[in-house]
């Protein structure tokens, strides 16, 4: 089921995007073009330092391309402020290091992502509780991050990423700091949310078996992006 | 959770640092209230001491900065008394005089025909025999402090005066003053024929034109500066100097408090650049990030100000209790001063948080995605 009827419309489009560091001495990405449709799951794979993180920073408008254009739903995003607005309303980010605020409870960590949405404190609390229920942490709302396991922290981070009902979830190695049991559980949760909410999921991962669960893989090598189907999909197709 | 709760949580992460900053603001506000209150109170108390003696105009030696420093020739009194519109004149010599137990008191010597004698609020005993008698009326506060009563002697510059009465004035200065005849005070201060102030009662004190004409006539005699008694301290240069010094120190204290807020928030921001980057990655605008930091500055300065008000009130009470000050000045900061100081501290604290807040907006959201 796909509630957004996704896959038909382009969500993110890279058109000849390049990104250079250090006044052009380091080329992270060169002439990258691809489109990710709404509701799709996409894995970004590649060796360490290949530019995976740069790619998702560009995808979230945290970095601006040095050449080319990144489009959101077909439109060029005009400014960093406009990208900030998109991150507040349309893009949820899941970090490898969880990036929860240590002094805030699970519920408050989620509420932080709703500031600026015009919601009352009561409404923010209510929605945060619902999001925690959705990730199976309904009873941990008042716990601080240090009182939780790694898997629970990442669940809170995922709850935070979906709290504004985004069109895109960008997950940067979401299982990188978890053991294999928790990693599989977190992936299950992400794909379940992607499926049930029709969200586009872009996930950076080193692990081929995790990447294979996505509908599509973007492999980065030497600053170039190669679009490929995962092995399981190819096998089924053949 | 709202922005204030978020700011409070952030401040609570470094409780000692936040507490010390609030204490810094509190000391700044307390100093401001105490010092400003002191200069205000000096002005008010000196003025009150003149007001309750009942003169309409007061003349002093022109061009002299110290309030009690200049002297006027006593012989001017009849000439001033003869000015049309002047109903009565009264000369007084004022000096600080060493007394028993190495203490110092304010002593006033009044001429026998001074109208001041008519307004002494005696609560015990009588007025001195006017003329050369070495008799004194002491204020009730100084009598209590020195343990004196009617019939005792009090030493002024080594000369003994018999206490014949106890007065009960309203102003703190007059309650701690010793009044004697003019002639013996002139003698022991080696100021024969000299007075410090010459006060006048007017026939028509409410007739502005008449009052101004009398002032001009007396000042035309030369060497005298005449003012209405109710505005006596308004242009006094010593009071002005005290006010300037007090207010300078007070403002320096307040600005130091602001710098403490700035320093604390700047350290907090530099420590939390990654977290601020996360907020930016979560879609917080630069304005919202700045606002969150400014709220922290507001909380630091607001709580610090509240503590400072308490320190200021206690400090004023301590100053009033100190004999060297409390004998002449009842330091009592007004509600207006307290309110203005608290508001100023909060506003300055908010202003002081703008730079750290601006630094915070430079936090890169990319840092949130880089490995710690």
SSE inventory with pairings:
The complex is a heterodimer of chains A (238) and B (372).
Chain A lengths: L9 E12 L4 E12 L3 E6 L5 H8 L7 E6 L2 E2 L3 H10 L1 E4 L11 H7 L8 H14 L15 H13 L5 E5 L7 H18 L2 E5 L3 H4 L4 E6 L2 E5 L2 H7 L1
Parallel strand pairs in A: 3-8, 3-9, 6-7, 7-8
Antiparallel strand pairs in A: 1-2, 1-4, 4-5, 9-10
Helix pairs in contact in A: 3-4, 3-5, 4-5, 5-6
Chain B lengths: L2 H11 L1 H37 L5 E5 L10 E2 L2 H6 L4 E13 L5 E7 L11 E4 L9 E5 H7 L6 E4 L2 E9 L4 H4 L1 E5 H7 L5 E2 L1 E6 L5 H12 L4 E5 L8 H35 L1 H9 L4 H36 L1 H4 L8 H18 L1 H7 L5 H4 L3
Parallel strand pairs in B: 4-9, 6-8
Antiparallel strand pairs in B: 1-11, 1-12, 2-10, 3-4, 3-11, 5-8, 6-9, 7-8
Helix pairs in contact in B: 1-10, 2-8, 2-10, 2-12, 8-10, 8-12, 8-13, 10-12, 10-13
Could you explain how this protein is built, in words?
The complex is a heterodimer of chains A (238) and B (372). Chain A has 238 residues and is of the alpha/beta class. Chain A has helices spanning 52-59, 80-89, 106-112, 121-134, 150-162, 180-197, 208-211, 231-237, and strands at 10-21, 26-37, 41-46, 67-72, 75-76, 91-94, 168-172, 200-204, 216-221, 224-228. In chain B, helix 8 (237-271) runs parallel beside helix 13 (354-360) and helix 10 packs antiparallel against helix 12 (335-352). Chain B is elongated, with a radius of gyration of 29 Å. Chain B starts with a helix and ends with a helix. The model of chain B has no long low-confidence stretch (mean pLDDT 86). The interface between A and B is medium-sized, with 36 and 27 residues.
Key phrases:
A: alpha/beta, 6-stranded mixed beta sheet, 4-stranded antiparallel beta sheet, 10 strands, globular, disordered N terminus, B: 372 residues, alpha+beta, two-stranded antiparallel ribbon, 14 helices, 18% strand, elongated
